[in-house]
Amino acid sequence: DQQVKQNSPSLSVQEGRISILNCDYTNSMFDYFLWYKKYPAEGPTFLISISSIKDKNEDGRFTVFLNKSAKHLSLHIVPSQPGDSAVYFCAASLTSNSNSGYALNFGKGTSLLVTP
Amino acid sequence: NAGVTQTPKFRVLKTGQSMTLLCAQDMNHEYMYWYRQDPGMGLRLIHYSVGEGTTAKGEVPDGYNVSRLKKQNFLLGLESAAPSQTSVYFCASARASLYSNQPQHFGDGTRLSIL
Questions:
Q1: Of B102, B91, B69, nearest to B21 (Cα)?
Q2: B86 within 8 A of B22, measured Cβ to Cβ
């Protein structure tokens, strides 16, 4: 059973506007969350992360929000640019279990298209 | 600045054949991982290693074996390939930390087709 869910397979946004990508998780033990970006024929690249002790983390145009009570996180991209068009994966892990190598549980991804 | 390198990039196998996928990282990372990605799916963990000489099973380990004889290399083996193993395989590595996760760094993937 998938523990990390991205219910929107795709999203289209105009250049300059805000892109909001959503992610839900079912395992309340998860305490570290990451977003990865993936272009075709390339591996995922790390974008931004957030620990469960925070509710917001910002890095330039990218902000991740965490709502632990709702088991929900979102990635905001402002302003969106055509180069942001990619598949975005949400991932979660447990920092308490170093023996698991902090293995990641991935969502299915959301394909973002930013149009000029 | 190679990072994580996967070899080969593409391969076509016949059912029943065996092969080994190689992953090499030059970042001196302790942790290494093998994932597979199927259409419409996220990445699923096959096996992982928290250090040289150690390996462990992930979410979907059946039909695969791994070895980590050297810190920088993590090998994924298919002993008898099956069409269900047609997928894109990603290797990743991460620095070990006692106190927090460190982001995983991914290779560009190996596209494997089993006929």
A1: B91
A2: no
Q: What angle do CA A6, A85, B7 make, to 5 degrees?
A: 85
Maximum CA pair distance of chain A?
46
pLDDT tens digit sequence for A5-37: 999 999 999 999 999 999 999 999 998 999 999
| Option in B58, B101, B103 nearest A95 (CB) | B101
Structural tokens at position B83: 């069409």
CB pairs under 8 A between A and B: 71
DSSP label at B85? G
pLDDT of A101 > 90? The answer is no
pLDDT in tens, A41-70: 999 999 999 999 999 999 999 999 999 999
Smallest CA-to-CA distance from A48 within A10, A82, A74 is with A74
Which of B4, B41, B50 lies nearest to residue A101, judging by beta carbons? B50
Best CA proximity match to A88, nearest among A55, A56, A32, A46: A46
Whose tokens are 């640019």? That residue is A81
